[in-house]
Amino acid sequence: MTTDDLTVSTRVVLLAGGVGGSTFAGGLRDEVRERGGELTVVCNTGDDLWLSGLRLQPDVDSMLYSLAGVKDLRQGWGRAGDSRRVADELAAWGVGWDWFLLGDLDLGAHIARTSWLREGLTPSQAIARLQTRWDLGATLLPMTDTEVDTHVVLDSGRMHFQEWWTRHRARLEPVRFENPGIAASVPAPGVLEAIAGADAILVAPSNPVVSIGPILAVPGLADGLRAASARVVGVSPIIGDAPVRGMADVCLRVAGVPCTAAGVAGHYGARADGGILDAWLIAEEDAAAAASVAALGIASHVEPLWMSDAVRTRALAVAALRAVGH
Amino acid sequence: MTTDDLTVSTRVVLLAGGVGGSTFAGGLRDEVRERGGELTVVCNTGDDLWLSGLRLQPDVDSMLYSLAGVKDLRQGWGRAGDSRRVADELAAWGVGWDWFLLGDLDLGAHIARTSWLREGLTPSQAIARLQTRWDLGATLLPMTDTEVDTHVVLDSGRMHFQEWWTRHRARLEPVRFENPGIAASVPAPGVLEAIAGADAILVAPSNPVVSIGPILAVPGLADGLRAASARVVGVSPIIGDAPVRGMADVCLRVAGVPCTAAGVAGHYGARADGGILDAWLIAEEDAAAAASVAALGIASHVEPLWMSDAVRTRALAVAALRAVGH
């Protein structure tokens, strides 16, 4: 990437969720901001939940904290330097999930959001308020304002995705994932407009099934991607046939998707073929998959995908933008 | 009081609210517990409020913390050793009242209560759960499960009682107090039964207008007191023509009640005369008022009323029980 390629008004849209998505978004934000462009992040809300009377939006908050520079980088979610004064009280009262920590600083956001929702604000409006606290260098939008859940269906019953993911560490074999409410959901205000007006659209290296999957399942959203004038590039969340962050392999297996860079590319599909991708970034470890990705009608780009520090993460964002001509 | 007077099954009911009420309740609980009796506290809920999406019951919580021995004795409310990790976050988010501190430990109770209410529990049921955490030596009942507010009507408008009391320190002259919803309220489950079955009924030295007033305004509750077989004794919250704890004088003035021990006795009235009192404890400083209290048809007892430590508080509870024959 050279500065010759810069367009002051470059409008970039990122679809993202989870830890990987929020990490990638930080690097992308740094790059887009330096270019004087505009970044809009469309964030998964499929694993939102009500817990202890509070509305939690885990992916939105991870994204918010990451872009604000206050995320706990060690654990990948929550606020840096958080404490558990309230959490210990909630445990003493027998409220909530004892395996799902709500840190004190984090609780501030949950209480603020819930307060605003109770006042009648939409989730979008609440998220708009949350992001006024810091200069994020990006606009953060939820995929939808509709309440959508992610349930994990097991042989023995069903549970909320967060229980399966956090409590059981994805060790219980799922039959399938379901997103109750998603068929009746609509994209949040601004989402389709951002996609239609974008110069580049990126799909973060997030879990394809439970982070990106719900976004694409919001009626009208995938159609918006297919109709967009911008090209769409994704970053593989699989490096060397293994998920960068644990447990995505289980999700892929349940969805019938091979846990490979090419497998996920095929799952998303070529835009020319009714899918969503024009280009796909695969890791150097997976260079051999480039041909089979190309055979899908998706331009493959071999790049270093490990986001092990801010420099590498930003370089990955640059590579993604370059793959779609920016 | 001698042990000769003890009845193992003595059932005592206390009407109380606020700081003074929760302090008195602690001493009474110690005495009743040692006698092997049963104490039921009927607590004011008139200054409950929704704040930041959470249901606060300030008087219930003060009572709970006091009986549990975890109250901040210096400030008279809240949890001892509390902190403000979350409160600082809420301020940063612009949520809540910056002059109304919600401590971290305290927030645990607010979140627990709100969570249970959202699950469909009644306030009574939520309070029943809250008090299982500690051995209170008493049963704590709200006066009603109906949501009742206390508004302060001013020349310039109206505000919630907590805003007037805590933010403005009762310095804005009120026109009157109103309890929206109170006419349609009903006593909480167990309240009328406790009163009807009591051997002694005590009215704590709480604010007569905004703590005891709402309790007595719950339809059926004052009638229950008048019909009770037990005698009813009150403890004057006025010592030496001044409220023990600030600002009750403003409330009394608005209600047209002289800020004297006799004035408050007259406000409550003699049970024989359609009021609620059989006996009234007045301070040594107010001994001269004994005759005018007696003239109301209320037995007056001059006692040391300052609850300056646990020994004096318990002695006051003993004196109150003795005044109604226990």
TrEMBL record, chains A, B:
Keywords: Magnesium, Transferase. The keyword Isomerase does not apply. Transmembrane segments: none annotated. InterPro entries: CofD, CofD-like_dom_sf, FbiA/CofD. GO terms for molecular function: LPPG:FO 2-phospho-L-lactate transferase activity; magnesium ion binding. Pfam families: CofD (PF01933). This is LPPG:FO 2-phospho-L-lactate transferase.
